[in-house]
Amino acid sequence: MNDATEFPETLTGAIQYFADADRALNFMVSIRWADGKAVCPCCQSSNAAFLATRRLWKCRDCKKQFSVKVGTIFEDSSLGLDKWLPTFWMIVNAKNGISSCEISRALGVTQKTAWFMLHRIRLAIQNGSMDKLSGEVEADETYIGGKARSMNSAQRSKRGRGTGGVGKEIVIWNVAARSN
Ligand SMILES: [Zn+2]
Asked: What's the gap in Å between 68 CA and the centre of ligand 1?
């Protein structure tokens, strides 16, 4: 991340930081694609044009458009990165754990929404990856299931590829939380 020096140290800071859509986008790009170059989730091509006004990429090879959320735990959610990333921040920085009530209050979302984000993010941290879990494709904010737990080892190893930067960023956040 090129602006790591101003990375938020407080929750208020995190909320303000990720309220800026371009900043949130840049942050996601830096944790998804280690070299900062978008990779098409359909054909794995890195030959994609960035459509700045829509914050989307268009693959020059397969012509499909994709956002930074495609292929991640955020993909099938209508919640913006301005909610997901501060929630992420809260979870990794909470020394004694965090409840959905606290997230709900801090971000002004319903407790149900907060619970949904908390559940997904915990799974991502547990798995060291923000890649979408294949068993959860049909899940949405109104459905909170434990399907990901039944994921088999083939799915686990499949998720491991092509996202070198993701686990690293989670580790950085965890380390930052512990060193306080
Ligand atoms: Zn493509």
From this structure: 14
Q: Give me ligand 1 centre to Cα 46, in Å.
A: 8
Question: What is the number of alpha carbons within 13 Å of residue 112 lying toward its C-beta?
Answer: 6
30 CA → ligand 1 middle, Å: 20
Task: Quote the pTM value.
Answer: 0.71
Query: Angle 94-96-101 (CA atoms, 0-180°, nearest 5)?
Result: 70
pLDDT, block means (10 residues), the chain with 180 residues: 61 92 90 87 94 96 95 90 93 87 96 95 81 50 36 44 45 45
Beta bridge partners of 126: none
Q: What distance in angstroms lies between residue 87's CA and the mean position of ligand 1's atoms?
A: 31
